[in-house]
Design a protein that fits this description.
Structural class of chain B: alpha+beta
Number of helices of chain A: 5
CATH topology of the largest domain in chain A: Ubiquitin-like (UB roll)
Mean pLDDT of chain A: 97
Largest interface: A-C, 56 and 59 residues
CATH class of the domain at 162-263 in chain B: Alpha Beta
Distance between the termini of chain B: 55 Å
Number of strands of chain A: 5
Number of domains of chain A: 2
Mean pLDDT of chain B: 97
CATH superfamily of the domain at 162-263 in chain B: CO dehydrogenase flavoprotein, C-terminal domain
Structural class of chain A: alpha+beta
Strand order of the largest sheet of chain B: 4-5-10-6-7
Strand order of the largest sheet of chain A: 2-1-5-3-4
CATH superfamily of the largest domain in chain A: Beta-grasp domain
Chains: A alpha+beta, B alpha+beta, C alpha+beta
Number of helices of chain B: 11
CATH architecture of the domain at 162-263 in chain B: 2-Layer Sandwich
Shape of chain B: globular
Oligomer: heterotrimer
């Protein structure tokens, strides 16, 4: 079957022959490898995308289910140059291996769009579904605390 | 593969009648697919069926997400909703999915059993309301027929004034319950206790409920007795997440603490 | 004429000591950085692996025909198809590329499939019919020890074996199997070169040793295989061993097409080695003033089915069994057992983590028995430069600021009693403030830097002028730790040029950089870059009779006499190999100069515990760490915070549950990694002291954060609850029941 949807603001078409995830289709068919596959069970957040305005794990979205929906991946976050969320992370040492980074960018962008001035606890609660194995989260928290201060 | 995208309940139940696998938030089904335990070739997506997302008074549509329950559900259900997976999971996962999956650790289930919720199911032939203790029959086993769809959860007309939810897990967030519990208490003392992860299905601690409901102002020794009775009524097992002994202990401690919260 | 080698280069932007930003930060943030998982070539096939569902079995028959008959399947390979050496291994070639006769662990590879898409490849792998005769697995490491199923035994005897002290504490301790759980699973792409050779792009920590093993099992000559560096999503030891590397090449060579393989998370849990579970018995004897009179230890690490790095991990556990303390009477017996459990090998801390939990618990018990402050007891016994190392007897020659670590740690401010934004139980709402007990625990640990026991530990690097500046070439693997940043910093400072990039190159273009492990790359590959860059600068200045080298070119008396463009056109380059100070193999009593350098770190953990439910929240972990010289302070902090988090994970939640040889929780639902809500606040003090042989005095910083953080958390839980806490991770039932 053919699934048509809006992907990062552009019409996209995918050919679906089995109950694969949106993540697989993004990575293997639509040449958007920014969303990462690290657990395939919604326990790490590396594959986070925005589906119809809400962040979800794209590994748990059946690709066949996104017909007529709108999907934004890390590749569709921002435009020219880094967004404030990305810049904050870059300048605070919040990236190491980077495998969790795209998911964190997607979730943090959603957080700051809804609440430009989150508290530390709100930052942590928003990112509770994004596992990072390298940083111990310290630099990630600091980067967003700093961004929250700058935007307040 | 064949995928239906109905917008009406009638079309959805028709697809189920034709053998389609229902897909709501995907947070359970897609794990099974990704791990190659299931491979449904005929699927009906429920995300766009408006009736399933409807939430009016005591009738919560099966498609209502944890995210919505977190912000507008009855107190103990909202508290439970906040512990479901991650923000991403709560945006996708639904209360109907929790009920259909019927995991002993389902975070919404202790509340539903504590308030004697009923499960509304529908097929192309019509619908029925199933009491929770008829619906849940074993680990991930329910009496839902192959051609039926869970369409809503019916809560009682009036809910207990005091409710408290708690869940034991070794991680601060995004963790499967080692023990889950909801205690409710009305102003006139009627107490219910719903338990999760301590039996093949969600359970009620009926004897403990009966004992504590008859006490207007529980004393320290009543609370201790209540704790012990809850522990005794649990039917936990040992698995890779915890031990029978710990679960039995923790469920009593947790129930007592939640009762104390209700009494304050 | 000037004497260029004595000219110190001017301070350069992005040089040593700056918290220079990562060059790969932006692509990683934009999602465009290419990881091994993302590699693709037109016409590539997907590979998949058939694995044993049994921990121990005899293979009676393998029938590949059901897999071959699936449309889109191009090849199904078994042990008979391995062209060269049927086995591989880091130190001992004992692990079958594909099992041919006996299965020795759950998940052992039996067959390989290449197919047109991933789904088909996986279905075909499942369709391979293997008939097994199930055998009784040996899963109890104690039983394995009795039967002398051992990869290595170590016997250390130092000093007067009759020595004794009046104050005695004994204990038995266990640590569980931990997983590295890097977020990127094993992945790679093998591309046949059309002439019988192959190019391999796969996850790795040690390209040249992957290459050696791949070449041997393919039966090719070294120049027919090129192992290329790729983008890597974390490692922590899990990528030291070969896993899919030989398999990918076999499939590519057989099909004549590129083949891609990516393990899913559950396959990853069987596809790499884990941190050894340990059983440790200890006896400490002290004099009344607290000085250690004798330490005895028996250490058992379960190596699982194949050797991997068990001999070296066991060596580390044994040599670091006393910790950063002086003691002149020591007896340590270590064994690394062979069982049918999952193979264990390298993980951050490499044997030093397990024993640290045991010896630091012993030190706390000893302080109790002596009625002495635990910090004072540690200070009294602290090992430092010039002392004999308690186990191997070697003299500590590089700076070892154990006392400074202890004292600065103890002096760091503590949080207010009430300070915590979250309670134990987290979002589960189990716990109120009145249920909580707070505890504080200290631990310090020590580890070797670089490879030990006489291993020829070297790295080669090349620095050449290109573009508008310099390029560093290395085969050292960047796994996320920031080597790519720090090597450029070293080159900038050494050359005096700010425009420096790092290029990770394949095995055909440069000699080995050694492994990205043992906290060694900054020191050893950094040493090679420093040597190459310094020599190159000297040669250029000498050649042009200049007195300074800058981004503009060669300067004499402040004037540019040769431009950078002219230098680049002359193809200036220098290749250098750096070796750390030589070490020796141990004698029969484990004595000798076995280690080239050491680092110490200390941790102070503050925990809130709900004793009735056994739930723990780690509030903060403060640390002081011996870093030599922080070449990039922010990157050092990143290593410290990340390492502490993994130590906290082992202390309170991370455990691979293995029953009868089978991993019961090979997924992220049940192998719990700490979330951001579990992260403690961290305050880190970097202790800098000149004198190590690393570039600019730098020491490796990756592992020390993981060594004693686990022990500190366990000590804090002990302080909060009064429970003995003799095993990590501490489970709720260990506290509540």
């Amino acid at each position: 079957m053919i699934v048509e949807f809006l992907l990062n603001g552009e019409p996209a078409t995918a050919r679906i022959v089995s109950p694969v995830s949106l993540l697989d289709v993004l990575r293997d068919q639509l040449e958007l490898p920014g969303s990462k596959n690290a657990c395939e069970q919604g326990e790490c957040g590396s594959c986070s995308v925005v589906l119809d305005g809400e962040i979800v794990c794209s590994c748990l979205v059946m690709a066949a289910d996104v017909g007529d929906s709108e999907v934004v991946t890390v590749e569709g976050i921002g435009g020219d140059g880094l967004t404030p969320v990305q810049r904050a992370m870059h300048h605070s040492g919040a990236v190491q291996c980077g495998f969790c980074t795209p998911g964190i960018v997607v979730v943090a962008a959603d957080l700051f769009a809804r609440n430009p001035n989150p508290t530390t606890l709100e930052i942590k609660e928003a990112l509770a579904g994004n596992i990072c194995r390298c940083t111990g989260y310290g630099a990630i928290i600091r980067s967003f605390e700093k961004l929250a201060r700058e935007t307040s | 593969m064949h995928f239906h995208h109905p917008t009406t309940l009638a079309d959805a139940t028709q697809a189920v009648a034709e053998g389609a696998t229902p897909l709501a938030g995907g947070t359970d089904l897609m794990v099974e697919v990704n791990f190659r335990h299931r491979r449904p070739e005929h699927v009906v997506g429920l995300r766009k069926v408006e009736e399933l997302g409807a939430w009016e008074g005591n009738r919560i549509g099966a498609g209502v997400t944890w995210r919505r329950l977190e912000h507008g559900g009855p107190q103990a259900l909202a508290e439970a909703a906040r512990t479901v997976g991650s923000p991403q999971i709560r945006n996708a996962g639904t209360i109907g999915g929790n009920v259909v999956t019927a995991s002993p650790a389902g975070d919404g289930l202790p509340f539903l059993v504590a308030v004697d919720a009923k499960v509304e199911v529908m097929s192309a032939e019509g619908g029925r309301l199933v009491p929770w203790d008829v619906f849940f029959v074993g680990v991930k086993k329910t009496t839902l027929a192959a051609d039926e769809l869970v369409t809503a959860i019916h809560l009682p007309e009036s809910l207990p004034e005091r409710q408290a939810f708690g869940k034991v897990g070794v991680r601060s967030a995004m963790v499967i319950a080692t023990v889950g519990c909801v205690v409710t208490r009305t102003d006139d003392g009627k107490t219910t206790v719903g338990l999760g992860s301590v039996g093949p299905t969600p359970l009620r601690a009926s004897r403990a409920e009966e004992m504590i409901s008859s006490v207007t102002r529980p004393t320290e020794s009543d609370l201790a007795e209540f704790q012990k009775m809850v522990s005794d009524e649990a039917r936990p097992i040992t698995d890779h997440r915890s031990t029978e002994e710990y679960r039995r202990h923790a469920v009593g401690v947790l129930a007592r603490r939640l009762l104390e919260r209700c009494l304050r | 004429m000037t004497a260029p080698s004595r000219v110190r280069p001017a301070r350069v932007a992005g040089g040593v000591g700056d918290s220079t930003l990562r060059p790969d930060g932006i692509p990683k943030l934009e999602g465009s950085f290419e990881y091994a998982q993302d590699l693709w070539q037109e016409g590539a096939l997907w590979g998949a692996t058939t694995r044993s569902p049994h921990a121990h079995a005899r293979i009676v028959a393998v029938d590949v025909s059901p897999a071959l008959s699936i449309g889109g399947v191009h090849a199904v390979l078994t042990a008979d198809d391995v062209p060269g050496s049927p086995t591989f291994g880091l130190e001992h070639s004992d692990q079958p590329v594909l099992a041919s006769d006996v299965i020795n662990y759950w998940g052992e590879p039996v067959a390989l499939v290449a197919a047109e898409d991933r789904d088909t490849a996986r279905r075909a792998a499942a369709a391979v019919k293997v008939r097994y005769e199930i055998l009784e697995p040996l899963t109890d490491p104690g039983e394995a020890d009795t039967r002398d199923e051992a990869f290595r035994r170590i016997r250390i005897r130092r000093g007067d074996q009759e020595a004794s002290g009046p104050v005695v504490v004994e204990g038995y301790y266990e640590t569980a199997m931990q997983d590295q759980a890097p977020l990127g699973t094993e992945a790679g792409l093998a591309v046949p070169d059309g002439q019988g050779g192959v190019d391999l792009f796969a996850t790795s920590q040690f390209l040249h040793v992957d290459h050696e093993q791949v070449v041997a099992s393919l039966g090719l000559s070294a120049d027919q295989v090129r192992a290329h560096p790729t983008g890597i999503g974390g490692a922590f030891g899990s990528r030291e061993d070969v896993n899919l590397h030989i398999h990918l090449c076999m499939l590519a060579l057989r099909t004549g097409q590129p083949v891609k393989m990516v393990y899913d998370r559950s396959e990853s849990f069987t596809g790499h080695v884990h941190r050894h579970p340990a059983r440790m018995w200890y006896r400490h004897e002290a004099n009344r003033d607290g000085t250690l009179a004798r330490v005895e230890a028996r250490i058992l690490l379960d190596g699982g089915a194949y050797a991997s790095t068990t001999p070296a991990v066991l060596a580390n556990a044994s040599y670091f069994a006393v910790g950063p303390y002086k003691c002149d009477s020591v007896a340590v017996d270590g064994v690394g057992t062979r069982t049918n459990n999952p193979p264990c090998g390298a993980m951050r801390g490499f044997g030093a983590v397990q024993v640290c939990f045991a010896y630091e618990t012993q030190m706390d018990r000893l302080a109790d028995a002596l009625s002495m402050d635990p910090i004072e007891l540690r200070r009294k016994n602290a090992l430092t430069t010039g002392d004999h190392f308690a186990t191997t007897g070697q003299i500590i020659e590089t700076p070892l600021p154990t006392v400074e670590v202890l004292e600065s740690l103890a002096a760091m401010p503590l949080p207010a009693d009430s300070e915590s934004d979250l309670l134990p139980g987290g979002s589960g709402l189990t716990t109120e403030a009145r249920h909580v007990m707070r505890g504080i625990g200290y631990a310090i640990g020590i580890k070797n830097l670089g490879f030990s026991e006489g291993f020829d530990d070297y790295s080669q690097a090349r620095v050449r002028l290109a573009g508008s500046g310099a390029v560093v070439e290395t085969a050292a693997i960047e796994v996320g730790q920031g080597l790519v940043t720090v090597l450029a910093q070293i080159a900038r400072t050494a050359l005096g040029i700010s425009d420096v990039t790092v290029e990770h190159v394949d095995t055909s273009r440069i000699d080995s950089a050694g492994s990205t492990s043992a906290s060694r790359q900054t020191q050893v590959s950094g040493g090679a870059v420093l040597k190459a860059a310094t020599t190159l600068r000297d040669r250029i200045l000498h050649h042009h009779d200049g007195d300074d080298l800058t981004d503009q070119g060669v300067l004499r008396n402040g004037d540019v006499i040769v431009t950078m463009g002219e230098l680049v056109a002359d193809d200036w380059q220098e290749t250098a190999t750096f070796r750390h100070p030589p070490t020796t193999a141990p004698d029969e009593y484990g004595q000798g100069k076995l280690h080239a350098d050491f680092a110490v770190a200390g941790h102070r953990a503050v925990v809130d515990v709900d004793p009735e439910l056994g739930l723990v929240r780690v509030i903060r972990v403060d640390t002081a760490q011996d870093v030599g010289k922080a070449l990039n302070p922010e990157a050092v902090l990143g290593q410290i915070e990340g390492g502490i988090m993994q130590g906290v994970g082992l202390a309170v939640m991370e455990e691979l549950v293995v029953e009868e040889g089978i991993i019961r929780n090979p997924n992220f639902t049940d192998y719990l990694l700490p979330t951001i809500l579990d992260a403690p606040d961290v305050e880190a003090l970097l202790i800098e002291e000149d004198g190590s042989w690393g570039p600019f005095g730098a020491k490796g910083v990756g592992e020390p954060p993981t060594i004693s953080s686990t022990a500190a958390v366990a000590a804090a839980i002990r302080a909060a609850t009064g429970k003995a806490i003799e095993r990590v991770p501490v489970r709720p039932q260990d506290i509540a029941l």
